[in-house]
Amino acid sequence: MEFDAHDGMMRACVERLGEKAGSQYAAMARPGFRLERATDDAPATGRCRLGGPSLLEAGTPWPELDGVPLSLYAVLDTDALAPWLGDFLPTRPGLLNFFFLDPDLPYEEYSRLDPYRPEAWRVIPADPARAVETAAPAPARSHPAVPVHATRTITLPDAWDVADGDVAYDENQYWGASSLILTHMGDLDGNTAGHHCAFGWPDTSYSSQVTGRDADGPAIHLLQLAEDAELDWGWGDAGTMYFTIPAGAYAAGDFGRAEARTLCC
Known about the structure:
Elements: E1 2-3, H1 6-17, H2 19-26, E2 30-37, E3 49-50, E4 54-57, E5 64-65, E6 68-69, E7 71-77, H3 78-85, E8 95-100, H4 107-110, E9 121-126, E10 131-134, E11 146-155, H5 177-185, E12 196-199, E13 213-214, E14 217-218, E15 220-226, E16 240-245, H6 247-252, E17 259-263
Antiparallel strand pairs: 1-11, 2-11, 2-12, 3-7, 3-11, 4-10, 5-6, 7-8, 8-9, 12-15, 13-14, 15-16, 16-17
Helix pairs in contact: 1-2, 1-5
């Protein structure tokens, strides 16, 4: 669920859930961005872009899976995003390069690989001062470079990312915290399905949890990539790709532990 301002988000939560549960749910809000194609009126945010060559430090090997290079899908300039993220960005990773095994590789290449292995995706930081453009080696595809403008938003988790201990609810009336959120917040127009987004919480279009949990709490959502005909990418019927990272790894700046998954209808 996406909001333009904190006051409106807090008001909606309290009005619909009551003072206690509403305040608890509002406390789960995270700053995020909707990534839109840059225009003259909304210029690119730093070096944020979709597609194009990677921005890696010289000497950084191109990531691969069993000898097959991954494809670059996006670069986020966290220095440009930091003013809005504030304390939600505990380290300064600089540029983040997002790679994934291209599902449109020639069949003979793709069929011998395991796209569910952690090596099938990668998030690689780079120092902006030392990063250089690096073209994708064949057979990885190189998508057109599309600079993006990052529009600031405030997001709340969808019902599937809320655990029973997160908010107070009447156990005689609801089967769990997810039921409470679905009943009272589910009709809010504001999910980000079909959009490219960074940070915040992922969209509400699937009855599935995207951000898992461990002892450090819910995972951090890094990037959501929707189908994009102009860039010629997609992941099944109305598919979306999500990159997340365990909260502890995020706090330590260990992006080698980032995870990726795709969901489709």
